[in-house]
Amino acid sequence: SQKIEQNSEALNIQEGKTATLTCNYTNYSPAYLQWYRQDPGRGPVFLLLIRENEKEKRKERLKVTFDTTLKQSLFHITASQPADSATYLCALDDGSARQLTFGSGTQLTVLP
Amino acid sequence: KAGVTQTPRYLIKTRGQQVTLSCSPISGHRSVSWYQQTPGQGLQFLFEYFSETQRNKGNFPGRFSGRQFSNSRSEMNVSTLELGDSALYLCASSSRDRNYNEQFFGPGTRLTVL
């Protein structure tokens, strides 16, 4: 069965450092991989999408890589700020536009 | 555009009761998906509707059902509530003018079953 693992349940880093979150998957061949941010008590918010034929995608301080050989995506937040503290979810999309499969999320805390 | 709205935001029910949750997608979005989020299981896909048709269904018992109306608004129903149904129920809409499925989530309905 499909399995998605995000590196750790919680990650604490110092303000200004780069946060790196990992998403690994098995038994799946996603056409796209998406990253979402979720704040407590709120729905997830879409951040970035990367296609299977793309190696890297950037948006402001965010960078996503996608390695279909390793079946892994890395999500980086550079120059992190306390406002970046949230839970980050990766989601796999098979391209059918019918269903996303989410990982369990990584709770990031950026310490001032 | 207004975002995805869900009503009610909070709900308390007792075991055995049934509940109906409502979702209004972003204007123009014809695909509506429902997810259940719990601390133990994370975000789990319930079902997806497009143009009033259920196109995909997750691994949930038949007590969970849904429907979509001609204006794309959607409802989900849970019958014979169990304690384990306590969760945040999230609705998400997406546009079909793209071949990927970026989803816009509502704030969710927090259901507590006593």
Summarize the structure in words.
The complex is a heterodimer of chains A (112) and B (114). With 112 residues, chain A is mostly beta strands. Chain A contains no helices and eleven strands. In chain A, the strands form two sheets. In chain A, strands 2, 4, 5, 9, 10 and 11 form a six-stranded mixed β-sheet that branches. A five-stranded antiparallel β-sheet of chain A has the order 1-3-8-7-6, with no helix packed on it. The N and C termini of chain A lie far apart (41 Å). Chain B is mainly beta and 114 residues long. In chain B, 0% of the residues lie in helices and 53% in strands. Chain B has no helices and eleven strands. In chain B, the strands form two sheets. In chain B, strands 2, 4, 5, 6, 9, 10 and 11 form a seven-stranded mixed β-sheet that branches. A four-stranded antiparallel β-sheet of chain B has the order 1-3-8-7, with no helix packed on it. In chain B, a hairpin with a 2-residue loop joins β5 and β6. Chain B is globular, with a radius of gyration of 13 Å. Chain B starts with a strand and ends with a strand. The model of chain B has no long low-confidence stretch (mean pLDDT 92). The A-B interface holds A 31-32, 34, 36, 41-46, 49, 51, 89, 93, 95-105 and B 4, 31, 33, 35, 42-45, 48, 50, 55-56, 58, 90, 92, 94, 96, 98-108, 110.
Fill in the keyword field for this structure:
heterodimer, A: 112 residues, 11 strands, 0% helix, B: mainly beta, 7-stranded mixed sheet, globular
